[in-house]
Automatic annotation (TrEMBL):
Residue ranges of domain DUS-like FMN-binding in the record: 10-234
Reactions mediated catalytically: a 5,6-dihydrouridine in mRNA + NADP(+) = a uridine in mRNA + NADPH + H(+); 5,6-dihydrouridine(16) in tRNA + NAD(+) = uridine(16) in tRNA + NADH + H(+); 5,6-dihydrouridine(17) in tRNA + NADP(+) = uridine(17) in tRNA + NADPH + H(+); a 5,6-dihydrouridine in mRNA + NAD(+) = a uridine in mRNA + NADH + H(+)
EC number per UniProt: 1.3.1.88
Keyword NADP assigned: yes
Enzyme class, broadest EC rank: oxidoreductase
Superkingdom of origin: Eukaryota
Keywords: Flavoprotein, FMN, mRNA processing, NAD, NADP, Oxidoreductase, tRNA processing
Cofactors demanded by this protein: FMN
Family designation: Belongs to the Dus family. Dus1 subfamily.
One GO term of the biological process aspect: mRNA processing
InterPro entries named in the record: Aldolase_TIM, DUS-like_FMN-bd, tRNA_hU_synthase_CS
Lineage: Eukaryota, Fungi, Dikarya, Basidiomycota, Agaricomycotina
Organism: Laccaria bicolor (strain S238N-H82 / ATCC MYA-4686) (Bicoloured deceiver)
Protein name in UniProt: tRNA-dihydrouridine(16/17) synthase [NAD(P)(+)]
Record CDD domains: DUS_like_FMN (cd02801)
């Protein structure tokens, strides 16, 4: 079980979750922040990209609010992800595998939420096992709902067996066009919490602070992750 405080987490948001934003939400009470999704191929092959994100991770504040931070990686090749993670692990407190991105770029690149189909589970297990055995920091996974309904728990239990330190569930279905269609199904978060040994973080349905508290009370989750709501009111 990680020693990190999972109660109030700022989500990984592409082109939003940079260093200054992470410092801002830490100042206003986030216990943990995530970087935006980073691309392992570019970490390994684009020196400017690597240096940019290392500078972003080195941003410092007088009161130490830049840490703790989780780096989120995506991809479908275990060795590429491991090699990229090894370059970054000294600059973070955990590394997360993105299994939730629904965007068309994720579909085209075969990563994110497009690894959630059961035919991809052996690959996901290979990736997470490689990460868990290779990194000096905890490994986590953030996912969306799988189909059929029992599959979300089934995959989460497999992730647990592969060594993740916690699971974050954005309890919505995968949709490239409507990423937040409808309310998140918090019953699925509750199901994970009742069946996993590792901590569970709930993501979805938070528009104000009272929603965060209600989410925790209903699901029993160890923490709540908040995304775009923070852009308007950190």
């Amino acid at each position: 079980m990680p020693s990190l405080d999972l109660r109030y987490i700022a989500a990984p948001m592409v082109k939003q979750a940079d260093g200054p934003f992470r410092l801002l939400v830490r100042k206003y009470g986030a216990s943990l922040t995530y970087t935006q999704m980073l691309l392992p191929d570019r970490i390994l092959n684009d020196q400017d990209y690597l240096e940019y994100h290392l500078r972003d991770l080195s941003i410092a504040s007088d009161d130490g609010l830049e840490r703790p931070v989780v780096i989120q990686l995506c991809g479908h090749d275990p060795q590429t992800i491991v090699k990229a993670g090894r370059k970054l692990q000294g600059h973070c407190d955990a590394i997360d595998l993105n299994l939730g991105c629904p965007q068309e770029s994720a579909r085209d690149g075969h990563f994110g939420a497009y690894l959630l189909g059961q035919k991809n589970w052996p690959l996901v297990e290979e990736i997470v096992s490689a990460m868990s055995s290779s990194f000096s920091v905890p490994v986590t996974a953030k996912l969306r709902l799988c189909q059929p309904s029992h599959a979300t728990l089934d995959l989460s239990q497999r992730l647990e067996a592969c060594g993740v330190s916690w699971v974050t569930l954005h309890a919505r279905n995968v949709s490239a066009r409507r990423r937040r269609q409808g309310s998140a199904n918090l019953d699925e978060v509750k199901r994970l919490k009742g069946n996993l040994q590792v901590p569970v973080v709930s993501n979805g349905n938070v528009r104000e602070f009272s929603d965060l508290l209600a989410n925790t009370e209903y699901t029993g989750a160890d923490g709540v992750m908040v995304g775009e709501t923070l852009l308007g009111n950190p």
